[in-house]
Structures are given as structure tokens and as C-alpha cells.
Amino acid sequence: MRSLPEFLLEKLKSTNPDAVFTGNMPKIYSSTGENYFVKAGSPSENEQYMGEAQSLEAMGHAAPGLVPKVFSYGADTNGSPYFISEYKNMTGLTEEAAEILAKRLAVELHQYKSQRGFGFEVPTYCGATRQKNGWHDTWEKCYDALIGNLLEGLSKKGYEDLVGLGEEVRNSVIPKLLGQLNIQPVLLHGDLWSGNVGVDSSTGQPVIFDPSSYYGHNEADLAIARIFGGFPESFYAAYHRHYPKAEPVSQHSLRVELYELYHYLNHTLLFGVSRYLNKLSLEGAGL
After folding, report:
1. Rounded Cα distance, 141 and 18, in Å
2. Are 57 and 120 in contact, with CB atoms under 8 Å apart?
3. Which residues are identified as catalytic?
4. What is the pLDDT of residues 54-111, one digit of tens each?
5. Which GO molecular function annotations are given, in alphabetical order (predicted)?
6. Other CB atoms within 10 A of residue 95 CB
7. In sequence order, what are the residues at sequence separation of 6 or more whose Cβ sits closer than 8 angstroms to the Cβ of residue 138?
8. What is the pLDDT of residues 100-137, one digit of tens each?
């Protein structure tokens, strides 16, 4: 825990001029009853802070209250980034909250469309992995770029056999499964696993945080949730009651595996050979 620098105290005062602030970063208390999440980083983390803040801002517009509200972000005079948002005390996801979350994703977040195509205007980070983002006119091109970025990183670490399989996926599976989809670019959380989901203890409502957003196929947002667990089956059923599976529905399970691939590869890039990677079967997707 760190004490609050004067620079950030001034930022908090501009957010809440009548308050007196106490506590240590990241949790700061105010005399008016609000709690704030405050963090600061090094200049090398500027992109990461910017990506998180702009992801949360976009999601806050799409689904108010589903994410912590962002009050301020930017950099100090030395170029070191900072970030100030609501602090929410959270408990684990319950089945009831999971079904509420599923509905809010389906009817709010995943209805928020981009006018610029698939992608995002700034880089975002899935874990420590930098997603280059930018804009693409099709989902096929966007997802190909996301996978290609991971394969580039894996190649640098010597995973040549894995990269070879990945290139086959890019050349064969992605065009086959994604090229025919008729979908809109909708806002995604991007890293929706159980560690980035909770329940606001004061309201009982679900909250999602630590995003790596971009505009893509809504079904991709459910992929990492399946890999790491923590979501009841009723979550998926509730989601698809409000947002039906894309056509062709017969290929939905293959798309699920393809979207899971991103997170399997990213896990391997970040942590080494992954026990999860062995669970992925590419045979059904045409390899």
C-alpha cells in the first residue's frame, strides 16, 4: 500500500471538492462517504492505463453501473500514469447475480455498437499482453490480427510447432468459421473470467472490471469464462435467451473453441506451456 501523492490528492479534490481524504492507495476514503480506487504507474505503463480507462468508460456508457465509474485518468508532469475510479467492495459471483450479469451483457453491453468497425481506438491489455487493436472492416480480419499478434509473441519465445498450428488456424479455420458471419461489432469486456467479476456487497448487483475491450463478435466474450470456470451453466442459458447464438447455429461449438484459442495461446505466452492448451481440439474446426 502507498500513501497518496499530492498530485493525486489534487485530482481527487477536483472530483469531490468538499471531501477530506484518508487511507492508502489503492483504497482511498472520503469524508462524504465515497470510496475511491486510486493507482499510479510508471511511464512505461501509460498505454495500459489508457486502455483500461477507455474500456471502462465505454462500458459505463453502454451499461451504467455494471463497471466501476471512472473519474479521472491521465499522466503527471513526469509522464507517469494515474487512474481514479469508484472503489467497490465485492463478494463472489452468486447464481442469481450471474443470471443478472448474463442479461445485462446480452441486452446492454453487447448491444453497444461501433460506427468504425471491429477493433478499438487504443491498445488494450489482456493480462500483460498488448493488443494492438486498430480498426478492421470485418470480424474475420480483426480476429485474425488478434491471433496473429499472439503467434508473433510465441514465435519470439521459440514455440515454433505451436505457431505452425496457429498459422493453419489463420489460413483455414478463421476464414471458414468467421468469414460467413453476418454480425455487428459490439463492445466486449475482452477478459471476462471469474477473477474479473464480482458482486457489489452494497447492492447485490454484478460488477465487471479489469477489461481489455474491443468491438467484436459478442460470442467471443464468453470464451474465457468457460475456460477458467466460476460461472454457472445458468449464466450461458440466460445469456442466449436474450441474445441468440449467431447463424449458423450448427457451428456455434466450433466458434466457441476458436474463441477459446485466443486465451489458451495468451496463457501460454504469459506463463509458459499451459495445461489448458492440451484441452483444445482443433480437429473439429477443420485441421
Report:
1. 50
2. no
3. 191
4. 999 999 999 999 999 999 999 999 999 999 999 999 999 999 999 999 999 999 999 9
5. kinase activity; protein-ribulosamine 3-kinase activity
6. 13
7. 118, 179
8. 999 999 999 999 999 999 999 999 999 999 999 999 99
